[in-house]
Amino acid sequence: MSPPSPSETPPSPLIRWEGVAALLGGALWLVAYALSVPLGRENGPARADASASWLGWSYFAAFSGAILALGAGLTGLQVRLWRRRRLVSLPGLLLAVLAFASAGANALLLMGLLGPARFDHARGGQGVMATCVSAALLGFTTRRAPWLPRGVSTALLATGVLTVVLIAASTVPLGPVPAYLVDDLPFALAGAAWISLGVAMRAKP
């Protein structure tokens, strides 16, 4: 009996680990949004400080943890896709690594290993954008590939693009609606999308 062709080879069970990473990242973004509401009430228009309160530190820890998990999952998935079918785009892989590295650097800062606990907002924004663009590139690259379900590829593409659009839209004032209810809302919506993606990835036979 001849061995199965690459297209017939069953996917590695590691996709379940990457599904867990998507679930964890999405859940942490939901937690970050839940923490951002009381934090916004507490600070008003002032920028939150990770060392000023337990609430602020917890918010930044959840936010960075989400990017760390998503960056790790995207990196692992793209590396394995490249090894199996050479489908991954190099920019998408590099951006996934950048997201992971940015979040890792903020994790070190928050733990106080490099001085007082703090959060680098520039690195945080870099990690978010890198995660979104990497997901969109991965979704676009794999839409016609049998290795990932078409629905998962389309959802990756849509999640990456729409998260950026929603972040831009959240900067527009909404009249009497408090800013702290809107500023981080895109991450709550993206978190829900990533949880759905994680469930779909883990359910893949």
Question: What is the H/E order?
Answer: HHHHHHH
Largest beta-sheet characterization = none
Mean of pLDDT = 84
Which stretches are poorly predicted, pLDDT < 50 over at least 5 residues? 1-14
Given helix and strand content, the structural type is mainly alpha
Relative helix content: over 70%
Beta content comes to under 5%
Q: So what's the overall shape?
A: globular
**If helices are DSSP runs of H or I spanning 4 or more residues, what is the number of helices?**
7
End-to-end separation in angstroms reads: 23 Å
Q: State the total count of DSSP E strands.
A: 0
- Which value, in Å, is the CA radius of gyration? 18 Å
Organism: Archangium gephyra
Transmembrane segments: 20-39, 59-81, 93-115, 121-140, 152-173, 185-203
Keywords: Membrane, Transmembrane, Transmembrane helix
Protein name: DUF998 domain-containing protein
Description:
The protein contains seven helices and no strands. The protein is globular. α1 packs antiparallel against α2 (54-85), α1 packs antiparallel against α7 (185-203) and α5 (150-169) runs antiparallel to α7. The chain has helices spanning 14-43, 54-85, 90-110, 121-141, 150-169, 179-182, 185-203. With 205 residues, it is mainly alpha-helical. 72% of the residues lie in helices and 0% in strands.
